Amino acid sequence: MVVNSFIQSTRALLAKFGIDAPDIRIEGLTLDSRDVNTKTAFVAVKGHERDGRDFIPQAISLGARVILAQTDDSQAHGQMEMRDHSVIISLYQLPSMLSALAAAFYDYPALKMMTVAVTGTNGKTSTVQLLTQLKDALGTRSASVGTLGSSVYEGENTQWVTTAAANTTPNAIRLQYVLAEFVQCEVRHTAFEASSHALVQGRLSQVKTDIAVFTNLTRDHLDYHGTMEEYAKAKRLLLDQPGLEAVVLNVNDSESQNWADYLDANAAKDGSSEEIAISKPRVTRVWTGFEPTDDVLATHKQPQDRHCFATNVSYHSSGIRFDLVSSWGTAPIELALFGSFNVSNTLSAISCLLAQGERFENVVRVVNGLQPVPGRMEVFPVGGSASVIVDYAHTPDALEQVLKSAKTHTAGKVWCVFGCGGDRDKGKRPLMGAAAEQHADVIVITTDNSRSESPESIASDIKAGLQRPNDAVEEADRESAIRYCLDSADENDIIIVAGKGHEDYQIIGTQQTDYNERTVVARLQQEYKK
Ligand SMILES: CC(=O)N[C@H]1[C@@H](OP(=O)(O)OP(=O)(O)OC[C@H]2O[C@@H](n3ccc(=O)[nH]c3=O)[C@H](O)[C@@H]2O)O[C@H](CO)[C@@H](O)[C@@H]1O[C@H](C)C(=O)N[C@@H](C)C(=O)N[C@H](CCC(=O)O)C(=O)O
């Protein structure tokens, strides 16, 4: 897909921020001096590790004609200095201007489409992907931004990936750029993951957001946020997004009440932002979750709230059945997805569609055709043999959740193929071993990016967490490990292959080789099908 370049005059751009700048034509903005060329302005800000201003000489040597540099002196705001062929324009509080600057440069792309931002500790990627798939099935060209990269949805297995993701949420400039690319590709709906880091750093502060989704909150990222309270507050910043019309909350997670309280407390405030003037009607709250009790409903629901609940949920060998009970209607749902968390993710996605005004019957129709998210609890049924599930789980908690979920889908055995990364957090190895032993019937320890360590020594660290280390099977080669399970498992068993998910490489020693577990399992699926 060819995207036209974006051309702006620095004078017109900076005039929007009250600065009288020279008239230089630029085709892009970048925070990284290494990406600079003669047509790209370098935006130099102080970071967490380094100071972008130290890279100004590099940007000049790469031909930058315009450099926007953070200054800590309010008096210096707007001052200009020529250095070689470059003009350096000082901007006070530049980090907090980045989103607005990029929105102005790329002509406010979020205003040209429907947008949904998803935050929460778990479920962001799946919710974004499921919503994108559903919206596309309903006939709206859709795109997603998050851990899996930025892509326009082009149907099952053929997503056009714009960029692989360096961060869950791209930096403030990159995000506006990606949205502008989507506009050029005639995208009318974008769902994106909003990480807590991104929210605190204002990476999305000028991205008009129609709907905010909160999935859940558990312990994570305390190295960055310090305390759970700060982490929770960071997530709640999503409620300050410009343009918010609806918020999807999880009735089963107590943090949702803080979101509801925040909305109540701020209902009277004007929601317009400085750069994007949008009047703020009362935000609609849509509650999602599993069969809430009357008590829960009484504390959470206001008369004007909407809901989207799952009742009579049952898990079986090819998916999940439940009754969707919502303010828009009631219908039986058959999902070809695994895991109770996928019920939650699907409910969040359904809530967004219904809040956007999609017809209930159409939503039910497309939900019944949902495909798994690549590499996230992705099922490969092998007729006559066990089903294989490829999942990205690579932490003790994630592994436990995945194995517990698998157990709900079968009366047979759950097999677990997994490993741990070399040269990384050794502490989690015995914990992953313990989680696997507790929740799987058979465990097969294999290689997962062993890097400079030997797979055997990593396996021995994993086994240190086992009660019965001699029962664990060791097979360093991942494909052979999966074959071992397929050769020995019964028809009703489930084989969880954890750790790789959507990734397509294996790092052993210093060698990175191509390894796509989804492709391998799809091949084995054909081979073993009876
Ligand atoms: C703490 C944090 O958010 N860091 C992110 C942030 O780094 P930073 O701004 O502090 O950058 P820095 O490395 O100190 O450099 C300062 C400036 O110098 C520039 N620079 C640097 C080197 C150079 O040669 N030239 C150059 O111009 C950098 O582009 C930057 O503008 O901006 C960088 C560029 O966008 C990100 O890559 C970097 O993510 C690092 C890799 C990271 O680990 N981030 C994690 C903590 C993170 O943000 N994670 C969340 C997801 C968490 C989750 O939910 O799972 C995310 O949204 O990605």
From TrEMBL:
Residue span, Mur ligase central domain: 118-352
Pathway note: Cell wall biogenesis; peptidoglycan biosynthesis
Domain Mur ligase N-terminal catalytic as annotated: residue spans: 26-106
Top enzyme class: ligase
BP-aspect Gene Ontology terms: cell division; cell wall organization; peptidoglycan biosynthetic process; regulation of cell shape
Gene3D superfamilies: Mur ligase, C-terminal domain, Mur-like, catalytic domain, MurE/MurF, N-terminal domain
Residues bearing the modification N6-carboxylysine: K235
Leader sequence segment: none
Chief place where the protein resides: cytoplasm
Gene Ontology molecular functions: acid-amino acid ligase activity; ATP binding; magnesium ion binding
Entry superkingdom: Bacteria
Protein name as it appears in the record: UDP-N-acetylmuramyl-tripeptide synthetase
